[in-house]
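Researcher: Good morning. I'm working through a list of sequences from a screen, and I'd like to move beyond sequence-only analysis. For each chain I'm collecting a predicted structure so we can compare shapes side by side. This is the next one on the list. No need for commentary yet; just the structure.
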Amino acid sequence: MRRVAIVGYAQTQHQFDMQKTREDMVFEVVKEALSHAGITRGEVDTVVTASTDFLDGRTISSVFLSMAVGAYLKDESKTEEDGTSAAWYAFMRILSGVHDVALVEAHTQGSTFNPHQVSFYTLDPLFDRQIGVLNDVSAAAIQARMYMSSYGVSEEEIAMVSVKNLSNAAKNPFAQRRMPDLTVEEVLGSKLYYHPIRELMMSPISDGACALVLASEEKAKEITDTPVWIEGVGVCQDFYLRDRNLLELDSLRKAAKDAYEMAGIRDPYAELDVFEVSEKFAHEELMIYEALGLCRRGKGKVLLERGATEKGGEIPVNPSGGALAADPVCATGLVRMVEAAKQIRGEAGEYQIPGVRRALAHGQFGMCAQKNWVFILGGEG
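Model: Good morning. C-alpha cells for this chain:
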C-alpha cells in the first residue's frame, strides 16, 4: 500500500466574530499551508474541503469558495462533516494512485450562524424537534449526568478537565480561550446551561479555518525532509441519539481499534506520545480516554487525578488546549491533526512535548460524539 504523509499545514487564530469574510479567511489559511509545504497551487492534484451549508448559512456553499481554496480547474470535493472526514477522503484518493498531492481545508464561522441552533436540525423531525427539548447541549448534559452517576464522577472532576485544557491553551497563540490561572471554582462558577454543563465545560463558538497538504511517499520525500506519516486511520458512525448507549463512545472505540490495527499498535498507552482529541464538552474527555483504550471503563478520572494526561504526564492529552479552547466546528478535528503533526515535527513552540515520535488525532461530528475519526501519525522513516 502507498504511504501518505502530511507535508504542510496552517490554521487561523481562532476567535469569535472574526473581522474577515469567509473567503478571505479560507484564502489566507490555504496560502499559508501551501507556503509551509513549499509548493504552489499548480502542484496540487485534488482539493477536499469540509463545511456545512447550515453553518455557512447558504446552499451549495463550497461553490463560493472554490477560488479561495485554490480549486479552480482542479479535481474538487466537499464533505459536510468534521475536517478529519475530508482528510480521510483525501488520504484514500492518494492511496488509489490517481492523485499524488491533496489539499485539505475545513472552516466554520460560528458567529455567522449559531452551531447550537444548527444542531437542532439533526434531530428526528417528527418527534424530537417537535417537543423542543433536545439540542447538542441538553443531550450532552444527559450524557454527562449518566456518566457521573454510573461511575461516581463529581462536577469538580469534570471541571478539572477544563482547567487542564484551558491552562494548556495559554501557551497556544491560535487558541480562542487562553486561561493560565483558571481554577476549578471559576469553572463551577461559570454560567449554567443544562446541569451539569457550564460555559467553561463546553467549547466556545468560534470562527476559524485550517488546511493541510497530503502527499504520496514519492512526492513527500521531494517536498520535505520531515514528513509526518499517516500510519493508521479508523472511522465509525453510531446510531441516532435515542437508539444508542450514551454511557460510552462506542463508535470512537471501534474507530480507534481499526486505526490501531492499521498502525500496528497494541498498547496505545505505551506506544503513543501525545493525544489531540476533540472534546466538545469536558466530560467527553474522560470518556475519550476510555474509548481509546487508555484505561478501563469509568476510570478516566483516575488518569486525570494522577496527572497522567497533563503536559508533563505519561500520556499528554490536548497540550494545545483542545476543542474547549477553540471549536470552529468543521475545522476542529483537522486542527487536532495539525497540532499532532506539529508535536511530531517539534514545531509546537511553548507547548511542545519533548521526544514525540507518534501521536493520535481525533475528530468527531454529531450529538454526543456520534461519528468519530482517529488518525495515528508518525514521524519516522
